[in-house]
Structure formats: structure tokens, C-alpha cells
């Protein structure tokens, strides 16, 4: 297998990390982090509500700022990097994407559940029309076998996606799972392939390396791993690890460590460690963004968050179904009460 | 009892399900199924002894006895059909996202349905959630309504998939225009789980008067009304109050006429369309509406 010696990094502190601060980033924080990432040489900086454009809602949590305010704050601080947004069809629309392009976004990740790429055709098309780089981003890839991931990756490629991502949104994969899926997609498509890791089973960096070994040339990270569930692969750690393995990322190791320690760490609401509930997310294969919503429901209905997560995993809930946390908690509480 | 002759344009899944529901109707006569090619749906209709055609809308225009026409094609064809049907004096019930005519949601504004030449059935998510928003609004005042519709992947056809933005935008608009909320937002999720999941809809409303009893009573009354034409419509989670936020979850199981039971999302829109046609037929038969 041909291995690239350059790995393109997408930092998602300001998008996936938005979950970990309940979408309360301020304009000053966004500008400071985006400016720091840009100066450190990060190629793509993703800035959006954790659930993408138009994600601010009862279902996913209200953001402090509008999408437009967030993007403008970041755009003002970025000189070289590609300002990137996330869009989940069914939540965000083409209109939202036009707004993002107008605010200076250069790339979009059109994210669908691993079996539903065809709901993203319109949005990939719109991105290309707007002159943006388009990523086809397949979420919850642990739920589908490699053949299915390949089929859906090819759909995204056929719509004009410039890059395909395999995302382990539940942090449920082990390195062999990653290699099987990423490797199969690399074989099947002509465009570059990336991988988005979650650390719920403490596998984020290991899985990122497995993806690279299988031919991925794009990786996601977040400073201090800030993200949904137990967070993502740590950008600054990825830079160091990749450098030790002889890969280039174009990112300055010292500078990215400083962004993580001096700018990101002081604004974190809690240390990004693998507590029991995020561990259970990975074990049960549940969408990482469900974590904080699950804590709230567990408290309201007086339940163990792990019981809620196990039931969500059993029901095979997909990304975006945060509303089903209340459904599960309510049914569990009824069962307990009525027994 | 006299019946009003109706036609269905578009013999796909929706059109076929409509056909079975019309065949059961006391007021409607399934006079014509028309498409543009010889298809499974056309054969199915013919097999049931129904007149069929592959001349599309023309076959409808040629039959002056047909009073009500269900359009189950797509937004683009409907934009062409709408003026032709209007000119021919037929009432169109539009199940596409074309939105030529006003939105109709039975239980909410069916009684206001006049002799409009064209009525739009919103979306499946709209049919499932607008009545609940309306019920909460009448009890407590809805400042903001947000719905999350979750549909089995198998039950979302290419039309929905390729136009998913239209679903969210049309549904959000109906939450305000018909549901009465000051602002609206709609989210749609497709879930591929096997066996396929039932359609679930979560409705969140920010209310002016957080009176839990009044909200529950209003919502429960509305659920009963909807059950009169969608028996599989039920409350999974009754309205729960958290400050001024109301959360309630609804499940829709289809009747299984032609579509499988998990296609509650399709069943609710075909059921609503037939309910609208029955109401119109009664008005026509009573001489209240000229046709």
C-alpha cells in the first residue's frame, strides 16, 4: 500500500469541542483559538455548533452565538487556514451553507449516518457551486461492515466530494475495525480519505495511526482532545506522534502545544478524561454527543447514565437522535416505578 | 350513499396506499389510477378492477366526472398539473412539496377548507407534529416550536432523500402557519435499524403559560382526534414540563394497507389526504361546495 508522508490535519476544537462546553464558546475564545491554530500551521479549522450549521436548538443545546457570529469571529483571526464548517443534512440546509460561504468558510463536511449518504447530494452540489472544498463525512462507521462503508463512500465521491471521511462517532472501534473500513475505502475511491476518532475506549490516537497505516491522509484532532464523549484524538499529541513516525503535518509542535495549554485548557469546563459514562458510550456504540444530555436526563429521572446509554445502544440510535435520550429515560423510569 | 369520483396521479408507493384507503371510503369512488408508464402500480390497480391510464394528467382532464384528484407524483410534475386541474374545475390534493395551495392539516384547519382549487398536505412530519403544536398553543401559547422526526431509512424514498431541505423548511413553516407557533424549526433523522423503527416525533415547545394540566388535556384530546383517522398514532411520552419548555414524543404506526406498518410517516400523510377528500366529498354531496 502506498503511504503518503504528509498528513493533512483538521482541528475540530471549535466544532466537536463545542459539545464539551455545551456550545458556549464566546467570540473572543473562538478568535483566540482559531488564531492560534492558524499560526501553528493547522490546515483546516472547523468552527460550528457541535451538531453543525443550524444545530442550535432544544434538541442539541442552544449556542451562545449564532452560526454567523461564530464564523465571523473565526474568519477574522485566520490568515492561511481553511475555515471549515460541519453540515448535517436534515438539520442544516443549503441556505445555511450559503451563509457560511459568505462568512468566509472554504470547506464543508457534509455528514450523514454511514448508510444515508444520499441525503447529502444536494449539499455537496451546493458546496461545489459555491467553490468550497467538500468532504463526504460518514458518521457512526462502526455500525456498518466495510462493504457498506465503501458503497456509501462511492456515493459521496459520485456527488463530487473532494475527500471522504470515515468517522468513529461513537468511539467504538478498535484499530482492526478502523483498518478494515479505512483500507477498503482507500482501495475503492480515487479521492483522499480521512479518519475522525473519539477516545471513548481510549483508542483515539491508536485508531488514528491505524487509519494512516491503512492509507488515510487526513486526520481529525482537537486541542486537549476537546470534544463529544471522551473527546477526539488530541491534535498536539497527533502532531508529535506523527512526527516521530516520520510524517509531516505542516504544524509546529511547540506552537500547537501552546495553543492547547495556554488557550484551550483554561476555558475547558472539565478535564477531558475517560469517565465511566463516556467509556460506556464507546462500549455500547452510542453517538458521543449524547453524553452531556444523558447526564442531564439521568439526574432528572434519577437513573444511572450507563443504563440509559446501554438501552440507546441496544435500540441502535444514530447521530442526531438526542431526543431519544428522554424517551429512554422516561421509559426506564416508568418501568422502575411500575414494577 | 352517493360517492364522489376521485383519481390518483402517480401509482407509486404513496399512490397505491391512497388507492387502498379510497377503496374503503364511504364517500369516495376510486375512478382512475393514472401514471406515465405501464408500472407495477398500474397493474396492481387494474388487478383490483380500477380504470387505469398511462396518459398521466390528461386522463384525469378527459373525465369530467372526476371531482377530486390526489397528486402523488413530485413537486415538478405537480407544478405542471396544478393549473391544468384548476382550469378543468377539479380540486387537487397535493402530496408533493410543491406547495401551490394552502397547507391543510386535518384536526387543525380541515373545517376551514373551502372550495380551494388546490390543497397541500405539508410533509409527513408536519402531519404528525403540527396538530400537537396547535394543541399546545391553544392551551399555553407557543412562542417557539421545534420538532424532530425520525423515520426508518426504508420508509424514506428518493424524493425525500434528494429534497431533504424542503422537508425541514416546509415543516418548519407549517409549525407557524398552521400550528400557531411564533417561530418553528424542524429536524429530520433517518435511522436504518433492523427491524425498521416506527416513526417517532419529538415536539418541543416554549410556552407562554406553563400549565402542565391544561397542556396535557389539550394534547390528549388532540391525540384522540388524530386516532380517528390514524389509529396507530400514540403518545410515547406525555407532555413533560421543564420551566417553560414542553417535551412530548409521539409514535406513528402505519395501518399496513399497502405500505408496511413501520411506514407510519407515509401512512399519516395518505390518511390525512383521504380525510381531507372525504370532508370535501361530504360538502360537495351536501351542495355546500360547487363542483
Automatic annotation (TrEMBL), chain A:
Q: Name one GO biological process term.
A: L-leucine biosynthetic process
Chain sites annotated for binding substrate: 15-16, 169, 196, 287
Q: Which UniProt keywords apply?
A: Aromatic hydrocarbons catabolism, Lyase, Manganese, Metal-binding
List ligand-binding residues for Mn(2+): 16, 196, 198
Provide the E.C. number(s) assigned to this enzyme: 4.1.3.39
Gene Ontology molecular function: 2-isopropylmalate synthase activity; 4-hydroxy-2-oxovalerate aldolase activity; manganese ion binding
The catalytic residues are 19
Q: Which InterPro entries match?
A: 2-IPM_HCS-like, 4OH_2_O-val_aldolase, Aldolase_TIM, DmpG_comm, DRE_TIM_HOA, PYR_CT
Q: What Pfam families does the annotation carry? A: DmpG_comm (PF07836), HMGL-like (PF00682)
Identify the domain of life: Bacteria
User: What Gene3D superfamilies does this protein's entry cite?
Assistant: 1.10.8.60, Aldolase class I (3.20.20.70)
Give the residues annotated as coiled coil: none
Q: Hey, where's the site called Transition state stabilizer on this chain?
A: 15
The residue ranges of the Pyruvate carboxyltransferase domain are 7-257
The catalytic activity, as recorded, is: (S)-4-hydroxy-2-oxopentanoate = acetaldehyde + pyruvate; (S)-4-hydroxy-2-oxohexanoate = propanal + pyruvate
Record's HAMAP family? HOA (MF_01656)
Q: Which family does it belong to?
A: Belongs to the 4-hydroxy-2-oxovalerate aldolase family.
Q: What is this protein called?
A: 4-hydroxy-2-oxovalerate aldolase
TrEMBL record, chain B:
EC assignment: the record states 1.2.1.10
Matching Pfam families = AcetDehyd-dimer, Semialdhyde_dh
UniProt-annotated binding residues for NAD(+) = 155-163, 265
Listed under catalytic activity are: acetaldehyde + NAD(+) + CoA = acetyl-CoA + NADH + H(+)
Q: Where is the active site?
A: 124 (acyl-thioester intermediate)
Domain Semialdehyde dehydrogenase NAD-binding: start-end pairs: 5-116
- InterPro entries the record matches: Acetaldehyde_dehydrogenase, Acetylaldehyde_DH_C, NAD(P)-bd_dom_sf, Semialdehyde_DH_NAD-bd
The enzyme's main class, written as a single word, is oxidoreductase
Q: Which GO terms describe its molecular function?
A: acetaldehyde dehydrogenase (acetylating) activity; NAD binding
Q: Which HAMAP family match?
A: Ac_ald_DH_ac
Give the family per the record. Belongs to the acetaldehyde dehydrogenase family.
The protein's name: Acetaldehyde dehydrogenase
Amino acid at each position: 500500500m502506498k503511504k503518503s508522508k504528509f498528513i493533512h490535519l483538521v482541528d475540530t476544537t471549535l466544532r466537536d469541542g463545542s459539545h464539551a462546553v455545551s456550545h458556549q464558546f464566546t467570540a473572543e475564545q473562538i478568535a483566540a483559538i482559531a488564531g492560534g491554530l492558524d499560526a501553528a500551521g493547522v490546515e483546516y479549522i472547523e468552527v460550528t455548533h457541535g451538531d453543525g450549521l443550524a444545530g442550535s436548538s432544544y434538541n442539541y443545546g442552544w449556542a451562545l452565538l449564532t452560526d454567523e457570529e461564530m464564523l465571523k469571529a473565526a474568519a477574522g483571526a485566520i490568515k492561511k487556514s481553511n475555515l471549515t464548517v460541519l453540515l448535517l443534512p436534515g438539520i442544516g440546509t443549503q441556505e445555511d451553507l450559503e451563509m457560511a460561504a459568505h462568512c468566509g468558510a472554504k470547506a464543508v463536511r457534509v455528514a450523514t449516518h454511514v448508510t444515508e449518504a444520499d441525503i447529502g447530494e444536494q449539499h455537496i452540489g451546493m458546496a461545489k457551486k459555491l467553490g468550497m472544498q467538500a468532504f463526504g463525512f460518514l458518521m457512526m462507521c462502526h455500525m456498518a461492515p466495510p462493504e457498506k462503508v465503501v458503497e456509501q463512500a462511492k456515493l459521496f465521491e459520485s456527488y463530487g466530494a473532494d475527500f471522504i471521511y470515515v468517522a468513529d462517532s461513537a468511539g467504538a472501534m478498535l484499530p482492526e475495525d478502523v483498518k478494515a473500513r479505512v483500507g477498503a475505502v482507500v482501495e475503492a475511491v480515487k479521492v483522499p480519505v480521512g479518519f475522525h476518532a473519539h477516545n471513548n475506549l481510549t483508542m483515539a490516537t491508536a485508531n488514528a495511526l491505524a487509519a494512516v497505516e491503512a492509507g488515510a491522509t487526513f486526520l481529525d484532532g482537537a486541542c486537549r482532545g476537546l470534544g463529544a464523549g471522551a473527546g477526539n484524538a488530541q491534535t498536539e499529541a497527533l502532531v508529535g506522534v506523527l512526527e516521530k513516525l516520520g510524517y509531516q503535518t505542516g504544524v509546529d509542535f511547540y506552537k500547537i502545544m501552546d495553543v492547547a495549554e495556554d488557550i484551550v485548557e483554561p476555558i475547558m469546563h472539565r478535564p477531558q478524561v475517560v469517565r465511566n459514562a463516556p467509556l460506556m458510550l464507546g462500549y455500547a456504540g452510542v453517538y458521543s454527543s449524547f453524553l452531556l444530555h444523558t447526564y442531564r436526563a439521568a439526574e432528572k429521572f434519577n437513573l444511572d447514565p450507563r443504563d440509559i446509554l446501554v438501552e440507546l445502544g441496544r435500540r441502535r440510535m444514530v447521530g442526531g437522535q438526542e431526543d431519544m435520550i428522554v424517551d429512554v429515560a422516561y421509559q426506564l423510569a416508568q418501568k422502575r416505578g411500575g414494577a | 350513499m352517493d360517492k364522489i369520483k376521485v383519481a390518483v396521479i402517480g401509482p407509486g408507493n404513496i399512490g397505491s396506499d391512497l388507492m387502498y384507503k379510497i377503496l374503503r371510503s364511504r364517500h369516495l369512488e376510486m375512478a382512475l389510477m393514472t401514471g406515465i408508464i405501464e408500472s407495477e402500480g398500474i397493474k396492481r390497480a387494474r388487478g383490483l378492477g380500477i380504470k387505469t391510464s398511462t396518459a398521466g394528467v390528461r386522463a384525469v382532464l378527459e373525465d369530467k366526472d372526476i371531482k377530486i384528484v390526489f397528486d402523488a407524483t413530485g413537486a415538478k410534475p405537480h407544478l405542471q398539473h396544478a393549473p391544468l386541474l384548476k382550469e378543468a374545475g377539479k380540486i387537487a390534493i397535493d402530496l408533493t412539496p410543491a406547495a401551490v395551495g394552502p397547507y391543510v392539516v386535518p384536526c387543525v384547519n380541515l373545517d376551514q377548507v373551502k372550495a380551494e382549487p388546490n390543497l397541500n398536505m405539508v410533509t409527513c412530519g408536519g402531519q404528525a407534529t403540527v396538530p400537537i403544536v396547535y394543541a399546545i398553543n391553544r392551551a399555553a401559547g407557543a412562542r417557539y416550536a421545534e420538532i424532530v422526526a425520525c423515520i426508518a431509512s426504508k420508509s424514506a424514498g428518493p424524493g425525500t432523500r434528494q429534497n431533504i431541505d424542503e422537508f425541514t423548511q416546509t415543516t418548519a413553516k407549517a409549525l407557524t402557519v398552521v400550528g400557531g407557533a411564533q417561530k418553528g424549526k424542524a429536524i429530520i433523522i433517518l435511522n436504518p435499524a433492523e427491524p425498521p423503527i416506527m416513526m417517532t416525533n419529538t415536539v418541543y415547545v416554549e410556552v407562554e403559560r406553563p400549565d402542565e394540566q391544561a397542556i396535557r388535556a389539550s394534547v390528549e384530546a388532540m391525540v384522540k382526534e388524530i386516532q380517528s383517522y390514524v389509529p396507530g398514532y400514540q403518545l410515547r411520552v406525555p407532555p413533560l414540563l421543564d420551566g417553560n419548555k414542553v417535551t412530548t414524543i409521539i409514535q406513528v404506526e402505519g395501518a399496513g394497507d399497502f405500505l408496511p406498518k413501520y411506514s407510519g410517516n407515509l401512512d399519516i400523510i395518505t390518511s390525512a389526504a383521504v380525510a381531507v377528500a372525504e370532508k370535501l366529498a361530504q360538502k360537495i354531496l351536501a351542495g355546500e361546495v360547487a363542483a
